[in-house]
Amino acid sequence: MTGSIMDTFFEECEELLEAMDAGLAAIEEGDQDAETVNAVFRAVHSIKGGAGAFGLDELVAFAHNFETVFDDVRSNKLELDEKLIQLLFRASDHLSDLVTCARDGGQVDSAHHDVLIKALAEYIDEDEEELVFEPMGVGAAFEPAALPLLDAVEEEVTYDIRFHPLKEMYATGNEPYFLFQALSDLGELSVSLDENELPGFDAMEDGENYLSWELSLTTLKPRSSIEAVFEFVEGLCELSITTDGDAEAEVDALAALNAAFGVGSAEEENVVDVPLDQPAPEPVEAPALAEVETVEVPEVKSDQAAENTPVAKKDAAKAKSAGPKPTLRVELDRVDKLINAVGELIINHSMLAQQIANLDASDTRDVETELEGFKTLARDIQEGVMAIRAQPVKPLFQRMARIVREASAATGKSAKLVTVGEATEVDKTVIERLADPLTHILRNAVDHGIETPEDRAATGKDKAGEIHLTAAHRSGSVCIEVKDDGAGLNRKKIRQIAIDKGLIPENAELNDNEIDNLLFLPGFSTASEISNLSGRGVGMDVVKNAVTKLGGRVNIASTPGRGSTFSIILPLTLAVMDGMVVSVAGHTMVVPITAIVETMRGNDDMINNLGADGTLLSIRGSFVPICDVASSLGLRGDTTNEPAGVYLLVETENGDRCALAVDDIHDQRQVVIKSLDGVCGNVPGVSAATILGDGKIAMILDPESIVTASSSAAVFDTDRRMSNAIAS
Amino acid sequence: MKTKVLAIDDSRTIRNLLAACLEEAGFEYFSAVDGREGVDKYSDIDPDVVITDINMPNLDGFGVLEELRGDGINSKVPILVLTTESAADMKARARAAGATGWITKPFDDESLIFALKRVTGAAA
Amino acid sequence: MQLQAEAKHVDHSEFVSFTVASQAFCLKITQIREIRRWQPVTVLPHAPADVLGVMNLRGAVIPIYDLSARFGLEQTDASERNVVIVVSVHDKPVGLLAESVSEIISIDPDDIQETPQVDSRNTMDFIQGIISQNDEMVRIINLDAVISSPEQVAQ
């Protein structure tokens, strides 16, 4: 039981950490709204609360320090300046590490831990620390102040208890009867009501209590157990607990109780007047941070305001008015089964439609109308189910903020991450698999893109670099963009590295775009040049592979002195895709619509031979290399010079065009993507499979890899230059 | 009849801990994820005792106390506040708002049951 | 369930015997998910000779191996008379093309003989033992050796 509750705790921690990061990011952006600050406080507080329940002392202690600082921020005792915000960010990162360590075992960097504790302690008021932290400490104070059964004494003692509730006690819902019941658990109890103080009926005041009880309890338990029973009514009643003729003890007991309670009755009078609401936090002064930022980077600030603010504000407003929407936690497995079933339903529909079309019936119009309705419903269900898997990229982006912070710290550069479009929803798996490529790109951006503060200053740039991380939906796909304002790619250097590593011949003539794309070649790693940060033996080829596996592509654009932009373009969902159904050497296959620029029927005039085996297709005066899909997939022997039935003009990620030759086009439709992972290994030229209306499986082609495979031999030899020249 | 407990806490972990302990002890357990939901559910559930966290979104523990005690109708139902602050002023504030008692987090099963016993008389 | 009902069969295991390239083979009945009639499959480009392609099994894409080619025997020219035996390997369904299914046989584990040394290393690896059934030798297939991992297909 405890195990599963602990799992819940760690799950919840993930969410709380996300909420905390989101809050801190908002605060950094200048949103120091009371509710934003409070949300962060609450997140830390909840982590502490849960951690306490499981005895995760290190986590509790750190969360406590963090929380104490934040409490002061909340009550406006501390001003959120940039220094403090940065500290809070680091503390948040560290808290996240502590949670991970508590969950997976392992040890946090204790030096780092101590540094942060110390840094936080500097913000904590000495008095306050003693007042609050001591009793909250991990040790003895966490045990309830007084528990019954704690230390039983040997001898039975009879206590005389006189109990006179004040009228205030009844306003708190305390009932003498229940207290007596609890007392009777401790031993032999006798109760007698003392009505002597009852005034005459006329003299009674409304709500005043005139009743007292005399109790006699014979128990083995110590006095503290009796006091514990009355803990909730202390100060709301007149209470005396005496053993035979023990008046002094009575005084001591009360004194002890009062001390334990910590509030004298006089003080309590004051506290009663505290308004029931939490004191409304004073409006937060326009934060100094915003000013500083504006001075430092006026241009970006306005730019950001234009892009970012309306969305963010709208979201915030929405969140505030509606509160968090109710949610249901569902196992991913169940959703995926549903997605699969809906996919089948859609296939089933096409099969039905096909069968009905083949029927020898005179009038199928009514059936077809109903079938249309079926189709619409099936699509609605599909969209709905897909939406379950879609999640905002926000948590991913928040993690990236940490990457940038760490990379900046490691390189001694100053870089700030600006995120746009955090609410953009993307398939869960895509989000998960994007973490690594994005991390790599961002590390690279800080490590190689952003210049040192001195260099930036020398070129008239702001000392702190900016990296924009943007997510947006763009015509059926998702675009994630990382744009830095650094030095741009050093093409001369990239070219030289590629030559040194034997990736291109020394005399290769490449245009800028081709040079940029050298970064993605396997074996091109810049590890030798700089730092241990991004060069960890993995190059950008890993990024490209990860994105390609998701059915997406990566583009680079770079301007010397102005910075670089990496764009990752991904399909909206991994489950369905718009495809063109074609036939290739008798096989039915599907080509993703997104890859196709244009289709055209083949005829003799279009074919131009180039050298021994190259063929070019002429389209409106320009020439494009032809790639025969059948021979590329090994389904047919050598390419003939006969024109193919149909040419599909596709554009590769580096902008090259190629004409895929297929036999015929049948249809254009949405297909359900069936991964071949685990079914068979990587099949060259094929990205996945789908099931067609007739129940047959069709391969989904990967135009990019078909083109690469057919031209790889020639990629960087001199023919290439010519074909490029002709193509462009 | 089982004693009905309505637990209001925004932390799933704490709710689960309460549920495990209370159900084990034979209480009938109901929960709400924040003060607003707690107050909304209150009349339907008609609990014998309410346990509420203090710091919650939407409506905090003081808000719960105010709304439940405010109309004078529910002055009898015991309300225990869950608090990590053992500091006296938190208890005093809670009491001033009408709290019957308090449970200090982290709590063990024993102290939780003992607290419930003192305000409901229910052993379980 | 039958096994439970008939106590005397308790230590026997049931196997399904079938022919591949005119030789008799068998698999434990518990390893088999279902047996289907052969239907044309979808070819995987660049796949090795013993991988026939993929088939739609109620919405799942499963690879189909030609057992004959896998054992180093001649490639099967699959037709409707042939069967696909769907088995579970590493929790994933995989189809095995066989000539035809013969019968269900009950085997006493003590009757299983070790595979005698023969020249064909290739076949040896795939056989974990042999038994005699109606004077005919039936080879027990070592499924894990036949399909070591799904990744090997098309590589």
From TrEMBL, chain A:
Cellular component, GO annotation: cytoplasm
Limits of the CheW-like domain: 576-712
SUPFAM superfamilies cross-referenced by the UniProt entry: ATPase domain of HSP90 chaperone/DNA topoisomerase II/histidine kinase, CheW-like, Histidine-containing phosphotransfer domain, HPT domain, Homodimeric domain of signal transducing histidine kinase
Pfam families, sorted: CheW, H-kinase_dim, HATPase_c, Hpt
Domain Histidine kinase: 392-574
GO biological process, one term: chemotaxis
Residue ranges of the region described as Disordered: 300-325
Keywords for this protein: ATP-binding, Chemotaxis, Kinase, Nucleotide-binding, Phosphoprotein, Transferase, Two-component regulatory system
In-chain residues carrying the UniProt-annotated modification Phosphohistidine: 45
Record-given protein name: Chemotaxis protein CheA
Domain HPt: 1-102
Nucleotide-binding found in the keyword field: yes
PANTHER family reported for this sequence: CHEMOTAXIS PROTEIN CHEA, SENSOR HISTIDINE KINASE CHEA
Job of this protein: Involved in the transmission of sensory signals from the chemoreceptors to the flagellar motors. CheA is autophosphorylated; it can transfer its phosphate group to either CheB or CheY.
From TrEMBL, chain B:
A single BP term in Gene Ontology: phosphorelay signal transduction system
Lineage, broadest ranks: Bacteria, Pseudomonadati, Pseudomonadota, Alphaproteobacteria, Rhodobacterales
Source species, domain of life: Bacteria
Species of origin: Parasedimentitalea maritima
Modified residues (4-aspartylphosphate): 53
Record keywords: Phosphoprotein
Gene3D superfamilies: 3.40.50.2300
Name used for this protein in its record: Response regulator
Limits of the Response regulatory domain: 4-120
From TrEMBL, chain C:
Any single GO CC term annotated in Swiss-Prot or TrEMBL for this entry: cytosol
SUPFAM superfamilies, alphabetized: CheW-like
Annotated signal peptide: none
InterPro entries per UniProt: CheW, CheW-like_dom_sf, CheW-lke_dom
PROSITE patterns, A to Z: CHEW
All copies of domain CheW-like, residue ranges: 12-152
Gene Ontology terms: biological process: chemotaxis; signal transduction
Top-rank lineage group of the source organism: Bacteria
Any Pfam family hit: CheW
SMART domains: CheW
Cross-referenced CDD domains: CheW
Protein known as: Chemotaxis protein CheW
Species per Swiss-Prot/TrEMBL record: Parasedimentitalea huanghaiensis
